[in-house]
Design a protein that fits this description.
elongated, mainly alpha, ARM-like, ARM-type_fold, Armadillo
Amino acid sequence: MNFVHQASSGGNQTATVIALCSMKDFNLAQETCQLAIRDVGGLEVLINLLDTDEVKCKIGSLKILKEISHNPQIRRNIVDLGGLPIMVNILDSPHKSLKCLAAETIANVAKFRRARWAVRHHGGITKLVSTTDIIGSTAAATETRCPAPHHRGNRGPREVSGPPPPAAPIAAGLGQKTGAGSQVALLDCAQNSAEPAQSSLYDARDVEVARCGALALWSCSKSYANKEAIRKAGGIPLLARLLKTSHENMLIPVVGTLQECASEENYRAAIKAERIIENLVKNLNSENEQLQEHCAMAIYQCAEDEETRDLVRMHGGLKPLASLLNNTDNKERLAAVTGAIWKCSISKENVTKFREYKAIETLVGLLTDQPEEVLVNVVGALGECCQEYENRVIVRKCGGIQPLVNLLVGINQALLVNVTKAVGACAVEPESMMIALAILLWFHKNLAFRKPPPSRRLPKGLVHQRTGTQLPRDRKRKRPKWLAGAAEGPMGPAEDSGGGTLGWPIAWLTAPVFRQQQFSSGHLPDRSASRSEFLSGWPIVLAGGALIAMAPGPLFACSPLPTTVTPTR
């Protein structure tokens, strides 16, 4: 690094380039090397080289900055040293390799809020959007290489001396390899053109510039203000054009940007207007798992709209979504796919299709041994599907009631809301209701009020309120209200015929049948609700639960309750 500093101070371009090349021989992906460059003042030198007029020095500096900017500390140091405004200015350079490196480095640096603000503040969003305009850049290059013929009037053909000029290299780069080693696929996007083989192919260098620009936009789109800036700069139509290419390295950042922006209503309307859903569905059939994940997540964001759900079905997107459920190794992709299925299941026509594709049976199988991100979406999808009788029967026959009820002991509010809706929908069927209440009452009688032996009792506040086991002071877990006060209903204790307490889990199960709208809006039941409000609408269900509790037989013979039970506080 000292050699680079001396060479750059002396103004020797060749020595500086040689020094930069020698730095590339080190393992720049290793954190030790990255921090060593920073500690000896290398970042200041590399950023100063970006302000020179020597293209080779800029390229060498950006190649190193691109590698070391994966380190979070280096990113912040680059922003502190004012590196982002210089990189944004480089985006105006006519040198395409320089623009690629600058955009890719911006993509690495813009991972935190202050960096994204700096890119927008210095006009970087508009410049990045312009880098994705392949059609504009290719058209300009075509006009430069092949000027329009002059109107000759009555004059004869112009005499040309010397050999004819070579053909315009408009298809340069066709068949070449990119840095990632993948084949560059050029798109024939000519409209009303008689010569598609000559004038309609994207230049491979323009494709690479657009890919790097899309990467930078993807990083910047984490910010709401940047999303608006991208939309106002005309980014949606350009991203829609890029979606038509078959180059996967290009598609991943493009779909990733659309996925981030689709959380805003304005973007969802623009996505419908630009007919992007069709291309998202097409890319679900890709072999690239990352591309499948981002396409499914984009559909999940957009499928809140009924028209979008219909478009997904019309373009054949439900079948690939159902087939992707069978691959459970990639949890991120599974969460995106189940989320898309959940939102698409809001439409009854889509639910019918999912039943044809055996997706409901697969969803029931995903109720166990999955992360919460997947479970929230799986249970949400089942809650929508179980609005129909045929699907409720499928869930019951596949053994889905018990794992659904078991999820009621969690503390994830989004998961609890979806579980109550799903169990409430299933509880409309008497058979499903009996199974669910049996499980809850078993849980209630065997776990909720089992008092620990005297030798294991601890001071107040150190006994687990459900199991009665010892809790260390530093590991006491905050529990949801409906479990912490299992002995109390929302209006106080409710005694059953055996002298025990029916408790809150039964109310938690049965209330969604009649209060689904309140639960689906994200509001949990209020413990302070009045008796008349709470019992309104479901006396038959509560009576059925009481009858089950009074029924003799082996169902509850495993652990009879004493006459009076006082839960340990």
